[in-house]
Write a structure and sequence with these properties.
The strands form two sheets. Strands 7-6-9-10-3-4-5-8 form an eight-stranded antiparallel beta sheet, with no helix packed on it. The chain contains one helix and ten strands; from the N terminus they run αββββββββββ. A hairpin with a 6-residue loop joins strand 6 and strand 7. The protein is mainly beta. It folds into two domains: 30 residues; 146 residues, Immunoglobulin-like (Sandwich), CATH 2.60.40.
């Protein structure tokens, strides 16, 4: 029994264990960190973002001894880590990361991106959009972006969207809205 549990643990972490029938290593592939990475698309509305790339890594908030952190209403808690690369620093203003619901009716500030173009925060939503905007200042009391949006990307769970506007004779470029692949 313990050997079986050890093999399951090795397989669950992407390792391998010998196959007793063939003697070769059997590999069980699991969905890794890429599944929890939200690609951030540039809107090209902010100078210096044309060649830039961004990603928001989503991880389970580590506040529980049970591996899953929940709010009082049973929602999962996630840590969101935003990182941008190959971007020219704006001459004025600061970049601020936000998360919002797909309906844009609720907005939560993650924070100002630091000199390494990174910011971290948390969210309690399963489906959300990550937005990076250029703001005049880093006012922590600001509750919604007011400057131009530089990057946006949708959580994997948010990619399940309605087919309204996707009839047989209608064309809509979903990738332009962050619904990649």
């Amino acid at each position: 029994m313990l050997a079986t549990l050890a093999a399951v643990a090795i397989l669950a972490t992407g390792g391998s264990t010998p196959n007793p029938d063939t003697g070769s290593a059997a590999v069980c592939r699991v969905i890794g960190p890429d599944y929890y990475a939200i690609e951030l698309f540039t809107t090209k509305n902010v100078p210096g973002t044309g060649l830039a790339k961004g990603v928001a890594d989503v991880t389970a908030a580590p506040t529980s001894p049970f591996s899953v952190s929940l709010t009082a209403d049973g929602s999962y808690m996630y840590d969101v880590h935003v990182a941008l690369e190959r971007m020219k620093t704006p001459r004025s203003g600061v970049l601020v990361a936000w998360v919002t619901t797909p309906e844009l009716d609720q907005v939560q500030r993650i924070g100002v991106l630091d000199e390494d173009l990174r910011a971290s925060g948390e969210t309690r939503w399963n489906k959300f959009i990550v937005v990076v905007s250029l703001e005049n200042d880093g006012d922590p009391a600001q509750t919604r972006w007011s400057g131009p949006i530089a990057f946006r990307g949708m959580s994997v769970s948010g990619r399940m969207h309605t087919m309204v506007g996707h009839g047989a004779f209608q064309q809509e470029n979903c990738a332009a809205y962050g619904y990649g692949n």
